[in-house]
Write a structure and sequence with these properties.
Blueprint (H helix, E strand, L loop, with lengths): L2 E5 L14 E2 L2 E2 H9 L7 E7 L5 H10 L2 E5 L4 H11 L5 E5 L7 H13 L4 E3 L11 E3 L1 H10 L3 H6 L2 H5 L1
Parallel strand pairs: 1-4, 1-6, 4-5
Antiparallel strand pairs: 2-3, 6-8, 7-8
Helix pairs in contact: 3-5
C-alpha cells in the first residue's frame, strides 16, 4: 500500500517540541499533514515516533486527528521505520520528516510518478530542492534489505544513508 511515513519526535536538540509547537494557532505537524493528505496517489499516512514518554503528546495528537501512528526506538530510526512499514503493509514508502511543513503535494506526486515510470527501488529529491523540502521513496524490499544489513550508527539513525551507499 503506497504510504507516507513521517518521522516525528519531541526530542529536538535545537528546538525541543518543535513538531507540535503552534504556528498561527496550529501545531507545525498539522501543516505537513494538510499538505500530504492532498497527494492523491497515497493510500495512508503514518506518524513514526518514539516510545519515549515525551512523545506521548505525538500519540495524543495522532489519536485526536485520526492519524495512524507507530511507536518504536528513539535512536534507531531505521528499526522504527522498518517496523512501522511492516505493521501497516507499506509498499512503496515515502519518507518525510515532521519538521518540514512546506512539502508540496505536487512535488510528491511527481516523485511518485517518476519512481513508478522508471521502475526504481529507491529515489529521493536531489540537492536542487531547498533545505526542508526532502523526501525519499523506496520499496519495502529496499527498506528490509537496509534494515538487515546496515550496521553503522549513522545508517541506523538516519534510514537512507545505507541506501545511498548501496
Amino acid at each position: 500500500m503506497l504510504s507516507i511515513i513521517i518521522q516525528a519526535r519531541m526530542n529536538s536538540r535545537r528546538m525541543p517540541g518543535k513538531v507540535l509547537k503552534n504556528v498561527f494557532d496550529k501545531p507545525l505537524l498539522s501543516y505537513l499533514l494538510e499538505r500530504v493528505l492532498k497527494v492523491k496517489e497515497v493510500e495512508q499516512v503514518i506518524i513514526a515516533t518514539s516510545n519515549e514518554k515525551k512523545d506521548d503528546a505525538i500519540e495524543k495528537f495522532c489519536e485526536y486527528n485520526k492519524i495512524l501512528f507507530y511507536r518504536g526506538s528513539e535512536n534507531n530510526l531505521l528499526e522504527r521505520f522498518f517496523f512501522t512499514a511492516k505493521k501497516y503493509n507499506c509498499n512503496p514508502i515515502i519518507r518525510l520528516t515532521g519538521d518540514c511543513p512546506l512539502m508540496d503535494p505536487l512535488v510528491i506526486s511527481d516523485q511518485i510518478k517518476f519512481f513508478f515510470n522508471n521502475k526504481l527501488d529507491y529515489g529521493y529529491l536531489g540537492p536542487s530542492f531547498p533545505e526542508g523540502i526532502c523526501s525519499d521513496i523506496f520499496k519495502y524490499d529496499t527498506l528490509e534489505k537496509t534494515y538487515k544489513n546496515a550496521t553503522l550508527s549513522s545508517d541506523l539513525e538516519h534510514i537512507t544513508p545505507y541506501m545511498h551507499k548501496n
